[in-house]
Structure formats: C-alpha cells, structure tokens
C-alpha cells in the first residue's frame, strides 16, 4: 500500500489503498471504509469550486436510481475543501474486454467529458481484447455463442437505461468503458458524470441541454439540443459495434454492409442499424430493443418489465410510477390548495388509506399536475414517520433537511427574525449549516426555560416557513402520520395555528389505523381540513394499472385486492397465473407468494431480510449486514432487490435499507417464532452497539425485546436524558415510563426520581392527568422505600409534600377536580389543616379569618424569617391549593388564601405574605363596597411599599402588577388594567430569562384579565395579537385551563368582531368541560363538588353571545341560562363587582331576545327542556326585574347596562328609548367599551363602519319597536 497522492481527501473514515485512475476532472481511488469495514471506490474532483461541487453532487444524485445494473452510490461529502463521493467497488471488466475474453479486472471508470482511464494491465487481456481495445479488427468475428452472451448482457443494460429514463434522466455517455461486467456476468452501467435531467420537474422550467459525451457515441440530435432517451439508445448501438469490432461505427460507410462480415447474426445487424438511425423517432425504444436482444440471446419469451422501484420513492431520483384513476381525489387536493391560498393560515388535507393503496402515487401525480397548471414555483418539504422509531421531532426530520437545502440555494430569500433563528438552529441541527446557531456561540445567553426555548424555536420556524410560502407555493408533505411522534405533533399543531404559515398546504398521508391513544393535538387546530379516504381500485382500474405494469392476469383484481402495490409486486416478481402455485381458493395468495419467495432465498439473503423485518424502520446497511452476520452482503442485497422485498431509503445522504412493504414484514413475522425474534433483536442490539453506539434509542428498543433488561434500562435512561435535553418532552416521557417498567428491581429512590421526571415531561407535553398520576406514583415509591411515614422535617417529607402538591395542581388543571380535592384534603390533614365540609362553613371560617386579619393588620417585615421544612411545606400547600382552585371554586380558594396569608404573617414569611396579600387585595376588590373597596387599595399600597423596601425581584413586581390589573377588572377600568398587565408581562419575561421557568401560571392569570379587557374595549387588532401569543404559550405548556380562557368568555368576542362565528363555535367545542354544571347530579353533589366555576361562567358567556349573534337561538340560550342560574347563585358570582352586573345584563338580553322569538315563532319544538307554559310576557317581566337590580347599583358599568335594557323593553316610549340609548352610548364610551358604544349607536340608527346587526345584537339588546 503506497502513500496517497496530495489530491486524496484528508478523511479519518477512508484509508487510501491505491489509485485506480485519473482523468481531466478527477481521480478514483480504492479505499477502505473504516466505518463499514469494506473496500469501496472514492471519486474526487481536482478543481475545488462551487461548479465542481455541483457537478459532483449531480453525478452522485443521478446514481441514486435503484437498479441491479446501475452502480450503487454510497456517500456524498461536500464540506469546505472536501468534495468526493464513494461507490461500490467492483471486480469487473469493461464490456469490450469481457466480450472477447470474459476475464474480470478492476473497475476502471470514465471520469467525465469523454476522457477514459488507460488500463495499466492491458497486456494481461487476451489478444482479441487487445485488438478490440486498440480499435483493431483483424477479420475475426465473434462467435454466435459470444454474440448471444453479449445480447443477454445488453438486455440487462436496456433495463438499467429504462430505469434511468423513467426517473427523468439520460446517461449521455454510454460506451464500453462505462459498462462493467462482473465475474458472475452481471453488467453494471457506471460513470454518471454527464447524466442530466431531460424532463421538466414539478414547478421547474425545462433544463437547458449542453452537448456532452464521447465522440462516436453522440447521437446527431444532441447537437441540436434535443435531449431524451433515444440518444442513449443511439449510444447503445455504437457500443455494440465497439464491443464486436474494437471501435465505434464509421460514419462514411454503408453500415449494414460494413457490419455483415463482422457480425454473423443478421438480427443483431438489423437492430444496430436501427439503433443508429439518424432520426431519433426511427430508433427502437426500451421495450422493443429488449425483445429483439432477448430473441438474439436465445430467450425469446423473456419478458420486459419496468422495475416498479421503491414503494415510497423517498428522497432520491425515482422511477416514473404509472398512475390511473383517482379523479375525485385529485379534485379534493385541488380544493385543499385553494383553501390554503385563500386563508390567513395553513390548510390541511389528510389522505388516509391502508398500506399500498396508492397514497404516495396519488400525491406525486397531483404535485406534477399542480406544477404544470400553476404559475407559482412549487416547493415540497417531505417528512416521514416510522413505526417504533423514537427520535426528537422525527416526523419533521427529513422535511427540515429539505428546508435547509432550499434555503441554501434560495437567492431571493431574505430572512430577518431577531433572536429567533438561533433557537431554530439549536432545535434542528440540520439548519446549523445556515449559521442559525451562531448568535448563541458568539456570547449570547440562551434562556434557561426549556419550554420557552422550544416555543421560540417553533415560532421562528413558523416565521421562516411563512416567508418561504410568500414566495412559493409551499407544500409540506408528511407520510405515515399515524406514527407521528408527540413532539412532531406539537410542532405540527403550532404550524397549523391561525396566521402562522399563511398559504401553506400540509398534506398528511396516513393509514387511518386507530392507535388506541388520544387524538393527536394537530387535529384540534382550527385550520381548514379536508380528508380523502382512499379505497382499493375498481376491477377496471386494477386491470388498467396491471397493463401499465406489464402484468397479464385474468384475476389480477382478486389476487391484489385492488391494491396498487401488489400489482407492482406481481410485476416485479415476474409471476403469471400458472407460476403462482396458489390454489384459486387461497384466501391470501400474495402472502403465499411472499412466503414462497422468502423460502427460495439463499441463507445469507434470508438472514438479512429477517434482520430488516425485525427492525424499527430504515436501517444503516452496516448495521443490517452486521446483524445478519454474513460476509456476502452484496449478493444478498441484490437478491432482495430483484425480488422486490427491500427498498433503499435515503436519509441524510447515507444509504438505509428497509422492508419494501409491511405486507412482506407481516408475512415473514408470522413465520418467526418467539425465540427467533428474540435472537434477532439481540443480534441487532450487538450490531448497533458496534456500529452506532450512540444510537441509544434503538439500542434500548432491541435490548428490551431481546430480554436484556439491565442493558435496556441503561440505554433507556440515556435515551430519556437525550430527549429531555432536546426538549422532546413526549419522547422523554415515553422513555421515563419504560425505565420504570424495566427497573422494577432498582432502588425505590431511583424509581421515584424517574417517576418525577416522567411527571415533569408530561406537564411540559400538556398531559396533566398523566403528570398527576406520575407524581403520585413517585410519592408512593418514596413511601414504599421508607416502609413508614417520614419524620416531619425530613427531606423525604418535603419531597412527598412537593410531589403531592404537584399532583394536586395537575389534577385541577386537567379537570379531575375530585382527585385534586382528595389530594389537597390529605395534604392539609397531614399538616394539621383540613377542607371545610360545607360551603357555609367555608364562608364562615373565611370571614372569621379575614376579620382577624383586618383587626391585626398586615405588617410585612423586610426580610423573611427562616422556616422549618414543615412550615415551608404547609405554606406551599396552601398556596398551591388557593391558586389552583382560584378559577374552579372561588369559595374554597378564598378559604385557603386567607389561611395562607394568616400563616405567612404568623411565621414571618414576608415574601409569601406579600404574594398572599396581593391576592387578598384582589379578593376584597371583588366584594367592593365601603369596607372592602378601600381596604383592597390599602393592602396593595402596603404591598407596593414593601416592594421598594425589600428590593423585590422581577417575579414579585410582576405579581404585584397582576394584582393591580385584577383589581381594575372589577372596577371596570380597562385601560388601566391593560397598562398593569403589560407591566406584569415585562417583569415576568425578565424573570423567565434570568431565572428559568416558574411563571407560566402567573402569566396565564395575567393573560385572562388582559384579554378580557381588550375584548371589552373592542381593541380588535391588539386583542388578536395578544390572543395568538397567549394561546400558543398555553398550548405549548399544556395548560388546559389557560387554553380554555382563550377559547371562551370575553376573549371569544374576537371571532365575532372578525365576523367568524364558525370559528367561535369550533373553539367553544374544544373548551374545558362545557356545561359541567348542567348535570342532573350537580346540585346534589357533596361540597366542594358541583360548584359553578370560572370555566363554566366563561362557557355561559361565550355560548350566549354566540347565540345572540347568530339570531334565532335565543330560546336555546335561555334554557342554558335557566339551568345555570341556581348554580350561579350558589357560587356567589352575583355578589361580585362587575361580574354580578354583567351576568344580570346578559340574563336580561337573553330573556328579551327569547321573548321576541316567542312572539314571532311561538314555543320552540326542538328544545325539550323549554319550561312548560313559559310565555313572552313572563320573560319580559323577568328582564324588568333584572333592570331594577342594575339600576340600583352604583358601579360604573351599571348605567349603560341598565339604559340598554330599558330601551329594549316593550312599552318603553320612543322618546325614552332614544334618551336611554344616548345614555348607553355615553356610558359605554366613558368606560372605553368602544364596540358596545358602536352597537348602541347602531340601534339609534347611525351607520357605524365597524358594526353590523349581528354584532350589535350580541353586545346590546335590540330596542323594542313601536
């Protein structure tokens, strides 16, 4: 082994063996691939430039067409000065040499532009070969036997050329030195340096063709710029001449006469003459050439079949798939594209159907048609999912690579997103090639809050895609979405959000199989969605597709079930009816065919197939061959390819193997027993450990199924840590759950730690119920390990309190209120506290504690006292309970709040007391009046004074601002509320960046009041912007209550302001536990169950507003209001400032609208719960009673509410109505409730541009007529 020349690339992976040859543009070396342990050929360019890189990449990609007679590419490297690719190394002779001698020699490949490598061992070839190579013919013609062998070889070459042509490529340099024949007689077409696309690709202009090739083999039409398959068949004719005579055909002779003495087979002479016809239309095509060559080879019945290629063509060049039918489905795809173009966000089309039904062919055919019809440039980002594969954002992995490749070459794209691109580069390593993570490396500080980093990355990626979609028609296609991982699901849901990627169409192909798990989050998005249920072909369509594939079977539809993939498999296998060997009554002939094909495999091929069958998806070739434990991997691979049992999947420029279809996998798995499967999993675990030791996810999977529990546990823990670090919360949670299952013999404290991490992952994922169960399990494991209750102030006691508090919070967030109350009661009892057994007792004890606080005062020390662990836990429990229940059970939350403030003041915990006093101030502000109203102001003033004395943190300043915003809500001062909310958000953001997580719940409370104020003010643009951000953050952290707050209540006015009642209805359908209080058992449930909560209030508001907006549904709204009213009173909501008045205003509006409907249409027939005998006059009397209560109030909102109702009451005189509406306009205006004021103006007869009758009806009752 000599020293490598200076042109050999510096690489640790490849070890130089020898130089195979050099041309004008590059060199070819034999190298040892240390990673795979075998010898390969390495080709590099001599001149390093962008043009060289482009040529090298083009040649490599052209080689990715899969066919047994095309040389196989391996890896491409274009990084800086490293520009090379590798390919299989063959022991073979070129065609001319093989024709005369049949002796294989090392591969010597043309390096490009017609320059050939001289053969250093030419003397070793026979005399005939030397004469042929030298272009000399001494009158010795090939024997008929040799000609038959040459024709047989050329049949395979025609098939290989046809595969290239079906992929839209032409070779442009077919000649003997580029055709290699192995010792086994397998011809291989090599050197794709001049290969070019001759067919217009979807969305792209037709490429310009340059004249290229080797003189003597270039078809005449190429000089005129006409590029196409006939040019390669011209070169094939010249190649046949060269193989027989030693030189390409002369141009100045009668070719037929000249060939006659040189070729004794007249049929071959005739074929060559036709292949060399100057008119491309006169040359035989692939099928005709194949048939004539097969006859010359002595096998006239040999069938020409186009190789059907890969089931899912994936990421390389692909062979053209025949496509028939599906007109209706193509129309649905067109409609989805129109949805995307017309909408303010992305649109979705889901193509469902079983494996092999033709989903991929349908989408491919539609994309080609779309590019032909559409003037906009098309960009398709393709992702795919795999069963059992656990990879962070695995569903988007390939799509992100596509995006990277697009952005690298996109000149007109100018991205400007401050601070966002670094986070995208941090999450998706493929994009780091664009320099998107540089700002972090240059000294910027990454936020410590993992969830916030992920939200930022999602948001920035959406902005990038939106900019791409503004310039191109963007299609994001994700295949096999039924296996979409949880993290990709979260990303997809984000990208489908309103206004995130306007104009983009997401095409999601899936098998439509029920997984038994919860509905994916992306389906809850409001994006326009169409669904295509793809069924089998009809008998006629199946026959048409079979004919296109060359399959001639009378019962092809019955045999294939109308599934296109099985038609293709029959064609690939060359099976005809008489060859199947399957009885006509056979229930599953294809499985029988598959099993028979597998049984006929040799040992190495069968072992390799079994490895791929047991794998989780596409597998690196080295891993597969290592697990198969066979040295003849190349032969095994070719056998599996020829039978159509495997496919090649390209991912990240590395070749991966996969089973061609799940039907093959299923048929083989039926034959593999439990012991055989366990052995295969063990072999794969060993192979991954040797070849890819960092693939801990796959090592965990195969070790577990091999029964190696200890090894599986170690890999599973490593995989969980990796997923956690990648912010892949769903994947991390799955691994922590597996660790708990595998590690049942581990120490209790270890398992408790895993369970807590499982809870943390489920919280971040948005699965609150699963998180609560995980925290409870962690607490139970700690107790099991101790064997007895821990000492009060021990670390174990603190951990138990923390875990059970977290479980309580998550149960309350997900609506499992009873479980939340159960845990809270246990926690309080453990700390000498307890839940009151009745509402009256809760109110009495709250009043007593609040009175004691008022008498004692609330002095706040500047510094907090040192607390015992038990005292600390007690305060945390009371705080968690009061805040967790704040929007679920006001009375119970109030009870826990005053206990928290009392305890904090008693033990000198000034920071806890500060927070509690801020909330207490808001609670007293809801009561108002001459006593509690001023006291709330004094408490907030004292809290503000403490902030300055204690040099408080951003968190505490943010909490103080939230409390002031809440107070303004109940005082109806919406502009000031917005000021405080903005200030709170800024403080919380600074705290998040500096300290990490810990402000999600606080921000959701702030958003609730902020959004409500903007909605009541009618600030539509500001409301929309804030709503989008708040909803995205709530969705990302999985806060069901916060998402509900965005979907209902005052914020739901956003869609009515925009004239989108359908959107309001969709969002309301997703709201948290709608109408829980309407159950028949609600009032009879023991307290604190069955309480009318804030979500119930928000649902009532949103439902009533929507019903009034749409018209004709007021009677339906009244029934819901009538059912809810006892619960409203029981929850003491009518006694709260603003809320009580707003509820009475809502009740009066609904009653008056329902009365008007009764007068017009009579009693409803479709509402079974309508109160028997209820008449319009009774509803109007009830509305008048509401008016009297509104009129007695001195709150700022009472006047416009009362005047609006007065104007709508029948019997109110016209003059009085006019005055009342004028007062309402003035009152709403004073409160800055602009849309309400506009509605009152509308009813006065003014034409307000931003108002219409539907919106006016939803905000202000329609005035009575007469």
Automatic annotation (TrEMBL):
Residue intervals of the Protein kinase domain: 14-304
Pfam families assigned: AAA_16, Pkinase
GO molecular function: ATP binding; protein serine/threonine kinase activity
SMART domains (UniProt xref): S_TKc
Keywords, comma-separated and alphabetical: ATP-binding, Kinase, Nucleotide-binding, Serine/threonine-protein kinase, Transferase
Signal peptide: none
Binding site for ATP: 43
SUPFAM superfamilies with a match to the protein in the record: P-loop containing nucleoside triphosphate hydrolases, Protein kinase-like (PK-like)
Domain of life according to the entry: Bacteria
Family: Belongs to the protein kinase superfamily. NEK Ser/Thr protein kinase family. NIMA subfamily.
PANTHER family xref list: KINASE, PUTATIVE-RELATED, SERINE/THREONINE-PROTEIN KINASE NEK
Official protein name in the record: Tyrosine protein kinase:Serine/threonine protein kinase
């Amino acid at each position: 082994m000599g020293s490598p020349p200076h042109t050999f690339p510096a690489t640790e992976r490849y070890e130089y063996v020898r130089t195979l040859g050099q041309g004008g543009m590059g060199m070819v070396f034999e190298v040892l691939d240390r990673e795979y342990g075998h010898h390969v050929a390495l080709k590099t360019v001599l001149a390093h430039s962008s043009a060289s890189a482009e040529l090298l990449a083009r040649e490599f990609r052209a080689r990715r067409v899969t066919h047994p007679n095309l040389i196989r590419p391996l890896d491409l490297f274009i990084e800086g000065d490293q520009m090379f690719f590798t390919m299989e190394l063959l022991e073979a002779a070129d065609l001319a040499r093989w024709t005369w001698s049949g002796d294989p020699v090392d591969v010597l490949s043309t390096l490009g532009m017609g320059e050939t490598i001289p053969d250093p061992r030419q003397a070793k070839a026979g005399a005939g070969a030397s004469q042929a190579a030298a272009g000399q013919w001494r009158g010795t013609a090939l024997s008929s036997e040799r000609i038959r062998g040459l024709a047989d070889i050329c049949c395979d070459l025609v098939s290989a050329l046809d595969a290239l042509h079906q992929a839209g490529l032409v070779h442009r340099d077919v000649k003997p030195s580029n055709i290699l024949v192995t010792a086994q007689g397998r011809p291989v077409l090599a050197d794709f340096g001049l290969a070019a696309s001759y067919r217009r690709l979807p969305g792209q202009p037709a490429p310009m063709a340059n004249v290229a090739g080797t003189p003597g083999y270039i078809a005449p039409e190429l000089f005129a710029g006409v590029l196409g398959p006939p040019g390669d068949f011209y070169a094939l004719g010249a190649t046949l001449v060269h193989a027989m005579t030693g030189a390409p055909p002369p141009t100045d002779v009668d070719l037929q006469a000249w060939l006659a003495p040189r070729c004794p087979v007249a049929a071959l002479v005739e074929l060559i003459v036709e292949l060399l016809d100057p008119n491309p239309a006169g040359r035989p095509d692939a099928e005709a050439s194949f048939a004539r060559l097969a006859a010359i080879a002595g096998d006239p019945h040999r069938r020409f079949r186009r190789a059907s290629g890969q089931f899912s063509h994936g990421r390389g060049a692909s062979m053209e798939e025949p496509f028939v039918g599906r007109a209706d489905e193509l129309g649905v795809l067109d409609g989805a594209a129109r949805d995307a173009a017309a909408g303010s966000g992305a649109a979705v089309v889901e193509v469902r159907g079983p494996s092999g039904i033709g989903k991929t062919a349908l989408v491919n055919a539609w994309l080609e048609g779309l590019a032909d019809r559409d003037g906009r440039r098309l960009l398709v980002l393709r992702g795919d999912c795999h069963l059992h594969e656990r990879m962070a954002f695995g569903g988007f992995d390939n799509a992100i690579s596509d995006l990277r490749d697009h952005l690298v070459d996109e000149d007109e794209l100018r991205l400007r997103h401050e601070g966002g691109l670094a986070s995208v580069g941090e999450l998706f390593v493929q994009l780091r090639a664009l320099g998107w993570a540089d700002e972090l490396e240059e000294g910027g500080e990454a936020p410590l809050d993992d969830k916030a980093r992920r939200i930022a990355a999602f948001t920035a990626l959406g902005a990038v895609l939106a900019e791409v979609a503004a310039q191109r028609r963007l299609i994001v296609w994700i295949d096999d979405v039924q296996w979409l991982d949880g993290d990709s699901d979260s990303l997809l849901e984000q990208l489908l959000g309103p206004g995130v990627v306007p104009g983009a169409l997401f095409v999601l192909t899936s098998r439509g199989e029920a997984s038994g798990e919860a509905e994916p989050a992306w389906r809850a998005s409001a994006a326009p969605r169409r669904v295509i249920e793809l069924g089998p072909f009809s008998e006629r369509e199946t026959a048409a597709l079979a004919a296109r594939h060359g399959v001639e079977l009378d019962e092809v539809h019955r045999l294939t079930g109308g599934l296109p993939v099985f038609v293709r498999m029959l064609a690939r296998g060359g099976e005809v009816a008489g060859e199947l060997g399957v009885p006509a009554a056979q229930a599953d002939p294809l499985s029988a065919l598959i099993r028979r094909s597998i049984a006929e495999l040799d040992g190495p091929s069968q072992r390799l197939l079994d490895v791929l069958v047991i794998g989780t998806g596409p597998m690196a070739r080295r891993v597969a061959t290592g697990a198969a434990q066979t040295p003849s991997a190349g032969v095994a691979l070719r056998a599996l390819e020829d039978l159509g049992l495997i496919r090649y999947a390209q991912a990240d420029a590395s070749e991966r193997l996969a089973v061609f279809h799940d039907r093959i996998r299923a048929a083989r798995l039926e034959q593999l027993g439990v012991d055989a499967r366990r052995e295969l999993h063990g072999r794969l675990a060993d192979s991954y450990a040797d070849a890819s030791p960092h693939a801990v996810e796959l090592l965990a999977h195969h070790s577990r199924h091999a029964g190696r529990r200890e090894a599986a546990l170690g890999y599973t823990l490593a995989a969980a840590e990796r997923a956690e670090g990648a912010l892949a919360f769903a994947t991390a949670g799955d691994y922590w759950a597996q660790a708990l299952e595998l590690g049942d013999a581990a120490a209790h404290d270890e398992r408790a730690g895993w369970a807590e991490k499982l809870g943390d992952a489920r919280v971040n994922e948005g699965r609150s119920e699963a998180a609560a169960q995980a925290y409870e399990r962690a607490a139970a494991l700690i107790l099991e390990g101790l064997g007895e209750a821990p000492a009060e102030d021990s670390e174990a006691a603190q951990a138990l309190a923390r875990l059970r508090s977290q479980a309580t919070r998550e149960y309350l967030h997900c609506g499992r209120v009873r479980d939340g109350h159960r845990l809270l009661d246990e926690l309080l009892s453990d700390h000498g506290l307890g839940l009151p057994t009745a509402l009256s007792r809760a109110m009495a004890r709250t009043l007593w504690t609040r009175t004691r606080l008022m008498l004692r005062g609330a002095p706040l020390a500047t510094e907090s006292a040192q607390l015992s662990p038990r005292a600390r836990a007690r305060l945390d429990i009371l705080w968690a309970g009061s805040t967790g229940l704040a929007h679920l059970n006001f009375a119970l939350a109030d009870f826990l709040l005053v206990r928290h403030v009392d305890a904090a003041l008693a033990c000198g915990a000034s920071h806890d007391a500060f927070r509690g006093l801020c909330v207490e101030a808001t609670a007293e502000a809801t009561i108002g009046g001459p006593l509690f109203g001023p006291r709330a102001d004094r408490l907030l003033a004292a809290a503000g004074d403490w902030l300055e004395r204690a040099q408080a943190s951003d968190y505490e300043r943010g909490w103080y601002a939230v409390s002031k915003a809440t107070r303004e809500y109940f005082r109806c001062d919406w502009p000031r509320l917005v000021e405080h909310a903005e200030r709170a958000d800024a403080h919380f953001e600074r705290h998040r960046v500096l300290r990490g997580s810990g402000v999600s719940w606080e921000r959701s409370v702030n958003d609730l009041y902020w959004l409500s104020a903007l909605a009541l003010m009618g600030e539509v643009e500001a409301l929309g912007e804030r709503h989008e951000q708040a909803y995205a953050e709530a969705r990302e952290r999985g806060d069901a209550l916060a998402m509900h707050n965005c979907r209902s209540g005052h914020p739901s006015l956003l869609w009515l302001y925009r004239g989108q009642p359908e959107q309001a209805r969709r969002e309301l359908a997703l709201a948290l536990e709608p109408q829980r209080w309407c159950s028949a058992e609600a009032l009879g449930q023991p307290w604190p169950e069955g309480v009318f909560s804030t979500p119930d209030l928000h649902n009532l508001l949103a439902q009533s507003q929507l019903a009034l907006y749409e018209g004709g549904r007021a009677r339906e709204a009244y029934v819901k209001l009538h059912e809810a009213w006892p619960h409203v009173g029981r929850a003491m909501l009518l006694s709260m400032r603003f809320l009580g008045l707003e509820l009475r205003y809502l009740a009066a509006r609904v009653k008056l609208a329902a009365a008007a409907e009764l007068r017009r249409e009579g009693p409803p027939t479709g509402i079974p719960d309508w109160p028997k005998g209820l008449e319009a006059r009774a509803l109007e009397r009830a509305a008048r009673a509401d008016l009297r209560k509104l009129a007695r109030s001195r709150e700022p909102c009472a006047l416009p509410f009362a005047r609006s109702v007065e104007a709508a009451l029948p019997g109110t005189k016209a003059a009085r109505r006019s005055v009342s509406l004028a007062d309402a306009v003035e009152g709403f205006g004073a409160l800055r409730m602009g849309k309400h004021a506009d509605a009152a103006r509308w009813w006065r007869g003014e034409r307000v541009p931003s108002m219409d009758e539907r919106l006016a009806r939803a905000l202000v009752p329609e005035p009575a007529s007469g």
